[in-house]
TrEMBL record:
Its main location: nucleus. Belongs to the SCC4/mau-2 family. Required for association of the cohesin complex with chromatin during interphase. Plays a role in sister chromatid cohesion and normal progression through prometaphase. This is MAU2 chromatid cohesion factor homolog. It is found in: Nucleus, Nucleoplasm. Pfam families: Cohesin_load. Keywords: Cell cycle, Cell division, Chromosome partition, Mitosis, Nucleus, TPR repeat. Interacts with Nipped-B to form the cohesin loading complex.
Amino acid sequence: MSLQPASTSQTATTSQDACYISLLGLAEYFRTSQPPNIKRCIQCLQALFTFNPPSKVEARTHLQMGQILMTYTHNIDKAREHLEKAWKLSESLLNFDDVKFDTASMLAELYKQIDQVPLAKAMLRKAIELSQNNVYWHCKLLLQLSQLHANDKEYTLASELLAVGAESADESSATYLKVLFLLSRAMILMIERKTNDVLALLNSAGAIIDNSIANPHQKEYLKVFFLVLQVCYYLALGQVKTVKPSLKQLQMSIQTIMAPNWPADEEKPLAKYRTISYKFDSWVTVFKCPTILKKRKRSGQTLKSLQLEVTKTFKKPLKINVWGFVP
């Protein structure tokens, strides 16, 4: 039994909380300075550990340290140390999803960077298992894991994960995310040359885009992804004449999202939407697959001209911020 008066204990706790807030605020000040003073930022975060903070504060701080070290330094070993500590602390904590799954996602990315992909896959599978009640993180982690399998040409596993994602999004009435998973799966199946399955997925996704996506920004982003795949699909079948209307629509959609009056990501309603960054660079793999290369050769100048149009449309890999509705 403690002999310390309750009021003294409460005062000490309040004072300690004030120290946490002050150090975190100071660390953020140094991080956002111009130029950023990362050394001072790290020192502030490191000082916070001397107060023996609660588990949630400690886990969040380790995550912040890992993020900063990965973003601003080349000290991968130290970043790994902090992220692994953050995961160990947060894995079993309830109501701590953002820190828990952000840590898992970043740690998997770190493992990938140091060529320890099996560790990255194991980490994501564990996080996916724990995130089933959080549609946002569940979908994001499924996408991340499917990308790792696709990178390793494990297309069947990637396709299975994307099918799970589509089902999870549908159960949560996250229509936008459902379409994203359908289109991503179509892309994987196209690489595998399963054109019949691709057509079914494209038809399903296209109908949802036309009829069930009310937000104009969401609709346009999905439309671009859909049209990229449709162009590649028609090329795979050698249907050069059929592809031209889709290519024109694609060019118009890209012009729309690149226009000066198109709102920047930070201007969108973050209260209702969260961002899932997803880089659609696998279309290049689709476009260069052996089947399409043969079709190009047979079709001659017409397809060569079309190829130039596609090249002009995509001067660099297409990166789109995907907006998933969070119920």
